[in-house]
């Protein structure tokens, strides 16, 4: 099931040429073990490749910091900064075996940090879906539709008989089918006509619409949170929250120093070489399936120029800013198609009638003289 969050912006940090090499290094996949209890505690997905997780193969890497250990003048700033990150609830892991002369600091956001800052940043999350079912005794019940098969005939039996007296509905699913039959037929006919422009559902899963609301830990029971809580936040949201924290933590113990704050200042002072979130995996053909590979094969290709863009998948992976840019770009390009057709017709008409156009003949005569 698709998980979504609505945000106003996504963060980004600069990266040097060295960082680009490191990204390729971390794209190498290695399988890791699964532990649902550990994943639920730490807010990770628990089943990613080891290149996307800590050494335990369970906690997801949400951000990476790079620094050169030979620069001792910044070591104290880094120590204080990283200590403040740990005090905030982030988990850090150090990797000194990546590239020669470059050390890595891997950052993982626990569920406590994610939920707390989702509330602070007023992010919106998908809510559970409920339906109101009237009973035969005049009362009503609210039931979730996440598992519609759990709705019993005791609640819906009278409604089914009233709506479909000629149908012996054996389950709510059958009743829903008959109720939506005409709409489904019309929709399927339209989809067949539009299949030329739509991406195949077996490659790009359909995005499910859900009501959203500003996240609140006090009202957590209203949100569609899975057992593995870490999957409630997609990768772009996890990175956004970590970026939000990194931009606001001090790297000095002087309480009066108001300028020694944030990762951007540390990057400008070369305390860190680069900072970035990781991709979801490799995009090459022989790589395991992942969101990055799915977008590479079903979006970033000239052969799919006539297809609709998977905007919601772009949004889940890159964030709202990037998705909004490509949504506008696609709309703008599409609206230029009618204008270009009219322009081509006018151009061809001008070429065909050039010999009979008196102003054009007069102009050519004057030029030739």
In short:
With 369 residues, the protein is of the alpha+beta class. It has helices spanning 17-26, 36-42, 75-88, 111-120, 153-163, 172-179, 181-194, 235-246, 263-268, 291-298, 311-318, 320-352, 358-368; strands at residues 63-67, 91-99, 102-108, 124-126, 130-134, 140-144, 212-214, 274-276. Helix 11 (311-318) packs across helix 12 (320-352).
Helical segment count: 13
Uncertain runs: 1-42, 44-48, 147-160
- Helix/sheet category: alpha+beta
Proportion of residues in extended strands: 5-15%
* Major sheet: arrangement of strands: 2-3-1-8
Gyration radius, to the nearest Å?
28 Å
Q: What sequence of helices (H) and strands (E) makes up the elements?
A: HHEHEEHEEEHHHEHHEHHHH
The main sheet comes to: 4 strands, antiparallel
> Alpha-carbon distance between the termini?
75 Å
Proportion of residues in helical segments: 40-55%
Mean pLDDT: 76
Q: Shape, please?
A: extended
What is the tally of beta strands? 8
């Amino acid at each position: 099931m698709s998980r979504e969050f609505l945000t106003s912006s996504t963060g980004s940090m600069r990266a040097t040429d060295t960082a680009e090499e490191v990204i390729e290094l971390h794209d190498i996949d290695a399988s890791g073990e699964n532990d649902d209890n550990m994943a639920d505690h730490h807010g990770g997905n628990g089943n990613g490749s080891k290149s996307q997780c800590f050494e335990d193969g369970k906690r997801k890497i949400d951000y990476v910091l790079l620094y050169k250990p030979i620069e001792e003048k910044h070591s104290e700033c880094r120590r204080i900064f990283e200590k403040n990150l740990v005090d905030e609830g982030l988990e850090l892991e150090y990797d000194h075996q990546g590239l020669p002369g470059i050390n890595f600091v891997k950052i993982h956001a626990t569920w406590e940090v994610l939920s707390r800052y989702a509330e602070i940043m007023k992010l919106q999350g998908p809510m559970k879906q409920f339906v109101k079912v009237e009973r035969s005794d005049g009362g009503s019940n609210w039931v979730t539709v996440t598992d519609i098969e759990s709705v019993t005939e005791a609640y819906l039996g009278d409604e089914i008989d009233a709506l479909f007296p000629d149908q012996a509905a054996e389950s709510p699913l059958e009743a829903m089918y008959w109720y939506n039959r005409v709409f489904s037929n019309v929709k399927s006919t339209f989809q067949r006509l539009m299949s030329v422009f739509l991406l195949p559902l077996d490659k790009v899963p359909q995005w499910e619409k859900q009501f959203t609301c500003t996240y609140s830990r006090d009202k957590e029971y209203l949100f569609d949170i899975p057992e593995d809580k870490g999957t409630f936040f997609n990768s772009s949201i996890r990175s956004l929250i970590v970026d939000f924290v990194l931009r606001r933590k001090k790297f000095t113990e002087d309480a009066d120093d108001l300028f020694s704050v944030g990762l951007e200042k540390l990057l400008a002072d070369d305390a860190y070489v680069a900072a970035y979130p990781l991709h979801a995996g490799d995009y090459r053909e022989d790589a395991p399936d992942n969101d990055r590979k799915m977008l590479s094969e079903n979006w970033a290709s000239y052969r799919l120029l006539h297809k609709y863009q998977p905007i919601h998948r772009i949004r889940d992976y890159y964030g709202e800013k990037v998705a909004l840019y490509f949504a506008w770009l696609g709309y703008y390009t599409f609206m230029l198609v009618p204008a270009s057709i009219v322009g081509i017709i006018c151009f061809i008409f001008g070429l065909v009638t050039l010999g009979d156009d008196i102003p054009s003949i007069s102009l050519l005569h004057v030029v030739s003289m």
